[in-house]
Specification:
This protein is an alpha/beta fold. The chain has ten helices and 14 strands. A six-stranded mixed beta sheet has the order 6-7-8-3-9-10, sandwiched between helices. A four-stranded antiparallel beta sheet has the order 2-1-4-5. It has a four-stranded antiparallel beta sheet with strand order 12-13-11-14, covered by helices on one side. Helix 4 runs antiparallel to helix 5. It starts with a strand and ends in a 12-residue tail after the last helix.
């Protein structure tokens, strides 16, 4: 499937004098899983709420399915399911009654066998009142409510938060199944490994601005190398003190390096010392993310967060 399902242009939101998001230009393609990364307060939830017309932008525009998010909100919401990061559910209903109510509000009934399957996979007891649920079970209920209707677009704000690791893996498989069926998933997460595992593309947002949008493979294929070099005997302490090379640690006759330039010189020095083995270590999405934000909130372009 092709085409842009989500599109924003110059999307900006201010809460009084406080920044929400600023000049966000974003496209999400039909049939892809798009991961939206950023720390708390970066603007992920604000962006999602504008798409759903829960809040209105200060300026700019947003569209889903080629429809304007403000003017055509009713038509859009018939094709979208949303799992918010902060849940507000009807506590006096049982889980079953809650799902039945959503079916009636949508005007179409989800396939009963699929709904039961989702509940079984997530380990959700729908006979209990929602007020008796733990936060984890409330998240499971919201996930069943979103997935059971098989919407064209799933917008998921931290969908695995509060779930145990086994259930988290189940949720990720559900996302992958939605993609195989040609549906689109736009989700935010703090768990970088899960974003890397299931996303086609990733957008990184900082201080309300979209820093980059890349394919996951391209984002992690950074122009530097992480090497572990082994020698017959420990190399001299100053052996790899050359431009573009950082020595990360030593363990016996092995040295671990991060090489951003002068790789050929590193190899020449290693050969002269007497290298016996070399191991390359892949760059993870977490390392890329930290390259944009840094431990003190400074992205790789030198801008303070």
């Amino acid at each position: 499937m092709s085409g842009d399902l989500i599109e924003t242009q110059g999307l900006t939101v201010f809460y009084g004098s406080h920044r929400g998001i600023r000049d966000v230009d974003l496209t999400v393609r039909q049939g892809e899983v798009f991961g939206f990364l950023g720390p708390n307060g970066a603007g992920k939830t604000t962006t999602m709420r504008v798409l759903l017309d829960i809040i209105r932008p200060t300026r700019g525009r947003a569209s889903l399915f080629g429809l304007d998010c403000q003017r055509d909100g009713v038509a859009i919401r018939k094709r979208v399911a949303y799992v918010p990061g902060e849940l507000a559910l009807y506590g006096n209903l049982t889980g079953r009654r809650y799902l039945d109510t959503l079916d009636r509000l949508r005007g179409r009934r989800a396939a009963p066998f699929y709904r039961r399957e989702l509940c079984d996979r997530l380990g959700l007891d729908t006979t209990r009142r929602v007020a008796e649920y733990s936060q984890g079970n409330k998240k499971k209920l919201s996930l069943v409510a979103a997935f059971m209707a098989k919407p064209d677009l799933l917008i998921l704000d931290e969908p695995t938060g509060g779930l145990d690791p086994l259930v988290q893996q189940t949720v990720l498989r559900m996302v992958q199944e939605a993609r195989r069926e040609g549906r689109t998933v736009f989700f935010s997460s703090h768990i970088l490994s899960e974003v890397q595992a299931i996303s086609d593309r990733v957008g990184i947002i900082r201080e309300g601005r979209l820093v980059t949008v890349e394919r996951v493979d391209d984002l992690t294929a950074q122009p530097f190398h992480r090497l572990r070099l082994s020698f017959a005997q420990q190399p001299p302490a100053e052996a790899f003190q050359i431009a573009g090379v950082t020595e990360l640690d030593r363990e016996g006759p092995s040295v671990r390096l991060e090489v951003r330039e002068n790789l050929a010189e590193v190899m020449r020095i290693a050969a002269a010392i007497g290298i016996t083995d070399m191991e390359t270590q892949p760059v993870t999405l977490e390392e890329v993310f930290l390259a944009y934000y840094g431990e003190k909130g400074v992205d790789r372009h030198g801008q303070g967060a």
